[in-house]
Amino acid sequence: MAGSDKFIPFKRNNFTESELIQKSADHYQKMDQRRSIREFSNQPVPKEVIENLIKTASSAPSGAHKQPWTFCAISNPELKKKIRAAAEEEEYTNYNGRMSEDWLKDLAVFQTDWHKEFLEIAPWLIVLFRQNFGYENGEKVKHYYVQESVGIAAGFLISAIHQAGLVTLTHTPSPMNFLAKILERPDNEKPFLLLPVGYAAADCKVPDLNRKRLDEMTVFYS
């Protein structure tokens, strides 16, 4: 194989069939407890935890291994305040004209509105930016499958947050260009997702929802 000198052996434990079944079941049971949280505690979370979460997210696959993402982790109160103010301005417009009646009806079960207190209460905000292209030595470098790659990294990050014992919410105030402006990001980066990260408030409640059954979302071809 051309360039095989740049390859290294892949090492991974091999499990028995019963071990595989148990491990997959355990992981499902843990992940099935994940919920989107809008009521946060202001209890601090160590920076090292956030660093580990981001490193886990960065282990996601990406087109041609270009890793077209930037993670901005914010704990600065003034920055969080600015982000909340800008997000609420967009959300107010969304809830009062941009969103269709059907959309608002579908959101009613979650009892959400344009107020986003959690953006200041949560100890951390992680803003995930997609890099539409890169720079090397001042020259533009092409990135591939950017949307897909960053989406996978977002999934890794959400999973890592839950596995660590913390909670989050996939917040996407639209449009999100204010995030690039507030955080002074370069022209090749566009905001993809905003995640408040921390502990759930002691009195936090979530909607009583059911997820689709396996037979409602899966087709097996054996």
Describe the protein.
The mean pLDDT is 95. The protein starts with 16 loop residues before the first helix and ends in a 5-residue tail after the last helix. The chain has helices at residues 17-31, 47-57, 77-98, 101-107, 118-121, 146-163, 177-182, 214-217, and strands at 69-74, 124-131, 133-136, 139-142, 167-168, 189-198. The strands form 2 sheets. It has a 4-stranded antiparallel sheet. A two-stranded antiparallel sheet has the order 3-4. The chain is of the alpha+beta class. α2 (47-57) crosses α6 (146-163).
Give a quick set of tags describing it.
two-stranded antiparallel ribbon; globular; 8 helices; alpha+beta; 222 residues; 6 strands; 4-stranded antiparallel sheet; 39% helix; single chain
Task: Write a compact overview of the structure shown.
The protein is of the alpha+beta class. It has helices at about 15-30, 45-55, 75-100, 100-105, 120, 145-165, 175-180, 215, and strands at about 70-75, 125-130, 135, 140, 165-170, 190-200. The protein is about 40% helix and about 15% strand.
SSE layout and pairing:
Layout: H1 17-31, H2 47-57, E1 69-74, H3 77-98, H4 101-107, H5 118-121, E2 124-131, E3 133-136, E4 139-142, H6 146-163, E5 167-168, H7 177-182, E6 189-198, H8 214-217
Antiparallel strand pairs: 1-2, 2-6, 3-4, 5-6
Helix pairs in contact: 2-6
